[in-house]
Automatic annotation (TrEMBL):
GO terms for MF: nucleic acid binding; RNA-DNA hybrid ribonuclease activity
Lineage: Bacteria, Bacillati, Actinomycetota, Actinomycetes, Micrococcales
Gene3D superfamilies: Phosphoglycerate mutase-like, Ribonuclease H-like superfamily/Ribonuclease H
Ranges for domain RNase H type-1: 13-158
A Pfam cross-reference name: RVT_3
The protein's name: Putative phosphoglycerate mutase
Highest taxon of source: Bacteria
Annotated organism of origin: Humibacillus xanthopallidus
């Protein structure tokens, strides 16, 4: 995980943040999407808002995806904050609070990811609590989730102020639902993403790691799924670049369906929003989910791009949001 952007605090002070998240599915399962925002409760000001289509998913998967987006935004913004996550999904709130069991595999995977993010916030000195709110009090996140179900992908950074700055700047606040609000996007660093397809055999691991290290240096972030050889590659790369790999089910490429995995695409878009140099060790489906998103490849052509086990693929995303594929299926290190 890249270092979070934080502001210096006075001793004993603690920033407070509120996540509002929602998800929906037209058909359940059907066309799905999530919306999430991070708000400064002192001023009511929205700091970040996000929306992302999820393809065909259930309503509950969409709700969890909204929570995950909000938690990731907090980790990037200030992981030492005290956070309240507010949702109109009783199921998600009760499950994340530990009062209800999680039976469905897709939700269990997403809940574990959410708990890992909560633990990351806790390790940084922050905290996360969950609060159910009625739907009529979750209108901003609901509107964003409907934008997502309409096919819109949104990541707006509207303000980055802490609670001590909020009162002084309250006169410039804009209503969260206003259509006149400018879509002010922060100047994120470019993203340099190296996609590593999991090798088939352990003997290929040192060859893959060597090839990765010729392309990235210290300071790179490493993310991976929980496949044994993926973990082995990620840990070896992480040891060389000085980064503890972030293990996430979002990079596994195991979501239901035979084409693009929208959970992988969500993870990719989160990286694109904050930038940096990232090595992502994932499955062939994970690699193709990113490539076809960048190239806007039609669904029926999803599997038409050749990639081999242990191959390297590079994607670049610039400050203005434009993206390009630098190379695909590089395999000379395996010869």
């Amino acid at each position: 995980m890249s270092p979070a952007t934080t502001r210096a605090k006075q001793p004993g002070s603690r920033r407070r943040l509120v996540i509002e998240a929602d998800g929906g599915s037209r058909g359940n399962p059907g066309v799905a999407g999530y919306g999430a925002l991070v708000r400064d409760p002192a001023s009511g000001r929205v700091l970040i808002e996000m929306a992302e289509p999820l393809g065909k998913q259930s309503n509950n998967v969409a709700e969890y995806s909204g929570l995950l987006a909000g938690l990731r935004a907090v980790v990037d913004l200030d992981p030492s904050a005290d956070v309240v996550a507010r949702m109109d999904s009783k199921l998600v709130v009760e499950q994340m609070s530990g009062r209800w069991k999680i039976k469905h595999e897709d939700m269990r995977r997403l809940a574990l990811e959410a708990r890992d993010l909560c633990a990351e916030i806790g390790d940084a000195g922050g905290s996360v609590s969950f609060e159910w709110i009625p739907r009529e009090k979750n209108k901003a996140a609901d509107a964003l989730s409907n934008d997502a179900m309409d096919g819109k992908s949104i990541h707006r950074v509207l303000h980055d102020v802490d609670a001590n700055d909020a009162a002084a700047q309250a006169d410039s606040a804009v209503s969260p639902g206003s259509q006149e609000r400018a879509d002010v996007v922060a100047h994120h660093k470019p993203l340099r993403l190296l996609l590593v397809q999991v090798p088939l055999v352990e003997a290929a691991v040192p060859l893959v790691v060597g090839a990765v290290l010729r392309l990235v240096g210290s300071g790179a972030e490493v993310v991976t799924c929980d496949e044994p050889l993926a973990l082995e590659v990620a840990r070896a790369v992480g040891a060389e670049v000085g980064a503890e790999p972030t293990v996430s089910g979002l990079w596994a490429g195991r979501a239901p369906g035979e084409d693009a995995d929208e959970t992988v695409r969500t993870a990719y878009r989160s990286l694109a929003a904050r930038g940096g140099t990232v090595v992502a060790v994932t499955s062939r489906r994970g690699v193709l989910s990113v490539l076809t998103d960048v190239l806007e490849t039609p669904g029926p052509r999803f599997w038409a791009i050749a990639t081999a086990p242990g191959s390297l693929t590079a994607v670049e995303v610039w400050e203005d949001g434009s993206s390009a594929v630098a190379f695909t299926n590089r395999t000379e290190h395996l010869a």
